[in-house]
């Protein structure tokens, strides 16, 4: 009885994936995945050294507060960077380091800090559920990321991961939550919005996918999300049976 109840709960959680709302099967042909925060951990030795040095040699002092400042301002600048005003991730990050120098009293070698940040995009550790997800997923996987594909490719090669395509901000002159990245992924995958799902860890992922007509799934590994508008999973493996088999 207990096993039966668990199976029923599992089926209920993912019924939105395998039915179209009318009780009919809806075939998912591809999976779109976010990169940073979904595949790549928002941590690791490079980003931790960068934020530690920024905190130690500025008015902030607390590395955790420095990291929060960094990612908050990065997301703001990425959202502003669009179309004719588009800037590369490298340019945005260097501008943030200069902003930290002006506003936070940072006294550091900015080029060294920039290189640590670039290393983070390539060499940060993966979440533990990523490799099992890739091993078991039988559907084509496309990565949608603000980060450049040349950095993502290094990470994938190092970890022996294969994807069918990478869509990054440079390709469409836009970052999340703008829908252009998701529309480009649909073009590359030759799928309609109803034939894919997108898994990401941020509201920007949810908004961008939704605006492109794609079903978004919020990955909340820390179980802190409170977003009734989206389906929530706590591990990539939660969706593997319904999505990829």
Structural account:
InterPro entries: HAD-like_sf, HAD-SF_hydro_IA, HAD_sf, PGP-like_dom2, S-2-haloacid_dehalogenase. By secondary structure, the chain is an alpha/beta fold. The chain folds into two domains: 129 residues, 3-Layer(aba) Sandwich (Rossmann fold), CATH 3.40.50; 79 residues. It has twelve helices and six strands. Strands 3-2-1-4-5-6 form a six-stranded parallel β-sheet. β4, α11 and β5 form a beta-alpha-beta unit. The longest helix is centred in the first third of the chain and has 18 residues.
Q: What secondary-structure arrangement, pairings included, does this model have?
A:
Blueprint: H1 2-13, H2 15-18, E1 30-34, H3 45-56, H4 63-80, H5 89-103, H6 110-123, H7 130-136, E2 141-145, H8 149-159, E3 165-168, H9 169-172, H10 180-189, E4 196-200, H11 203-211, E5 215-219, E6 231-233, H12 240-244
Parallel strand pairs: 1-2, 1-4, 2-3, 4-5, 5-6
Helix pairs in contact: 3-4, 3-6, 4-5, 5-6, 6-8
Using brief descriptors, characterize the structure shown.
2 domains, Rossmann fold, HAD family hydrolase, alpha/beta, 245 residues
